[in-house]
Design a protein that fits this description.
Layout lengths: L1 E12 L2 E13 L5 E18 L2 E6 L2 E5 L2 E5 L2 E2 L2 H4 L19 E4 L1
Antiparallel strand pairs: 1-2, 1-8, 2-3, 3-4, 4-7, 5-6
């Protein structure tokens, strides 16, 4: 199974940091034929880790139910651009608006 996370927001509260978004998983046969796709909206715990570019959210390991299968997702980092967007202008888009693929990782 391969999956992706479409980040909607980073939430920082007194009890910790959380990433809210939509997890999507694709199940494929060995030949690459698509068997099924499912998605689940979730808010999951994350750690803010400092590196050379600043703070980077790292999603903690979690279990997610997709297509009736419990998937164990390993910890992964999120590009700070997606977690810390720039201030929006009146059009509702960030200056230098960045669009790109969701984080994808085999599980």
């Amino acid at each position: 199974m391969i999956g992706s996370l479409r980040v909607q927001r980073l939430v920082i509260v007194p009890r910790g940091a959380f990433v809210a978004g939509v997890f999507t998983g694709e199940l494929r046969e060995q030949q690459g034929l698509l068997v099924g796709v499912d998605s689940r909206r979730a808010t999951v715990q994350a750690d803010l880790v400092s590196d050379e570019t600043g703070l980077r959210p790292v999603v903690r390991p979690l279990e997610l139910d997709l297509m009736g299968i419990t998937i164990q997702v390993q910890s992964f980092a999120i590009d700070p651009w997606f977690a810390f967007p720039r201030r929006e202008d009146r059009s509702g888009r960030s200056p230098g608006h960045h669009t790109g693929p969701a984080h994808q990782e085999p599980v």
